[in-house]
Amino acid sequence: MTVSEVIYTFLEVLIAVSCCLGNMLVIFALWTSKSIQLPTFCLIVSLAVADFLVGCVAIPLAVVVDGRVETSFYGCLFISCMVILLTLVSVLSLVAIAVDRYLRVYIPLRYKRTVTRKHSCFAPMFGWYNHETLSNSVNSTIVCQFISVIPMSYLVYFSFFLCTLTPLLIMTVLYGFVFCTIRGNLREKPGRSAQKQSQNYLRKEKQLAGSLALVLVLFALSWLPLHIMNCIAYFGGLNVVPEVAFYVGILLSHIRTAYLKIWRRYIARGEENQASHTSHTTDNNLSSISVTKNE
To answer: How far apart are alpha carbons 254 and 223 in whole angstroms?
Structure first.
């Protein structure tokens, strides 16, 4: 192994260990607080579990598919698809959390009846493989490299355009709508006590949405560089992007799982306090509306 390979492997191991420990703390904290009974926290735990698996499974496999071992074509393809699958689970968890925030603001009175723990389950999918490598490896083994079994067209069109860029745009629109709705409601002058309590609820929702939007920004900053380099390599040629830049992009995409430590510090504590007041706030909103109608 060269010096650069040793440094890359060491950094990957360091990221994997910190990722596993950080996400274990998130899962343990939410589990002991019994907040997991709420749909929102089911999605947060789902994201934490997905990123934990990225740290203990996907990152080690990403090192393996860097030309370190020789396997059959389908063995290498299976390992590569596991890396992709765990990545897509994280993306879909972020989308589900954004939809949950949107529904909580758009239909606050029907949120508890509409969003339940049963609605917090979904499954990702992944796509095609490199037919040229398969035809050249019949009845033989190959040096397992991610790019040799997963075509660049898949990484650009499916992984980036469909499974990363599209969810990113959807989440941006949803959070934008949440901020605009909350901002418009907060501009109304509070009159009655119930309306004041409703505004306090909206302020808490705005703070939570802001923290979640920060997670979205970190997600975009960690993944876009690698996908942009894949697009440049696909449309302009592999020699256009230096190999070192690809390794930096891979490391940056793996570092994204560390943001759950920030999540635990800035979101989980505030959300635990907010959860105890949610039912009272919703009841107050309902009573406020009924009083207004009667008048």
So the answer is: 9
